[in-house]
Design a protein that fits this description.
globular; four-stranded mixed β-sheet
């Protein structure tokens, strides 16, 4: 069993109060990664919130891990050089239903503001995944049933209004990705799932 990373420095008090505190979705994603620990390697992570990048460095230092956060909107600052080169891609997207204007934040609201149906950020990112992953790349995403975890590009293309996690997996197979639901957990009102994809 891998211990939960030290994260006491994140929260409502102190220098990282503008960074989203780890919650049930974070710990569910950690559980999925722990199950696949032998397959995974250390790497870089991106965030739109500069303070979250500093917090990531502090968390890494406190847990004796070397990590290099990059401040960018999703992967904008890393294209096109990442095409076909990503071995591990983790996405815990903002999924709270908010006005679309809130997704423009670079502060703590960026951690939860998902825009219309809580999916605007996911909808921008998902189409990029097949081109980003290397031949052996893995992609993990947190989805939440309450926000109808379907993606509007899929809805538009296939004329669907709601997809379950299993249907998301089936549709993304048509994009060349093989997927499974690796974990599911109810956390309060939220029904969270971790989906895992690789190239077929």
């Amino acid at each position: 069993m891998i211990p939960t990373p030290c994260h006491r420095h994140v929260g409502p008090e102190g220098p990282f109060r503008e960074v989203y505190e780890p919650a049930e979705d974070t710990f569910l994603l950690l559980d999925a990664l722990e199950a696949d620990a032998e397959e995974l390697r250390r790497g870089r992570c991106t965030d739109i919130n500069p303070l979250a990048g500093l917090c990531t460095v502090e968390t890494a230092i406190r847990n004796n891990v070397d990590i290099q956060p990059i401040i960018t909107d999703l992967i904008t600052g890393l294209l096109p050089r990442l095409h076909g080169k990503v071995d591990l891609l983790l996405f815990n997207p903002p999924y709270v239903v908010t006005p679309s204007a809130e997704i423009q934040s670079h502060g703590i609201a960026a951690a939860w503001a998902g825009g219309k149906n809580g999916r605007e950020v996911m909808d921008r990112f998902i189409p990029l995944v097949p081109d980003l992953l290397s031949a052996k790349g893995l992609f993990y995403i947190v989805t939440i049933q309450e926000n109808n975890p379907a993606f509007s590009f899929i809805e538009h293309y296939y004329n669907l209004s709601f997809l379950t996690a299993d249907e998301i997996i089936q549709i993304l197979q048509k994009c060349g990705l093989k997927g499974t639901k690796v974990l599911y957990r109810q956390a309060g009102r939220e029904n969270l799932s971790i989906l895992k994809f690789c190239k077929s």
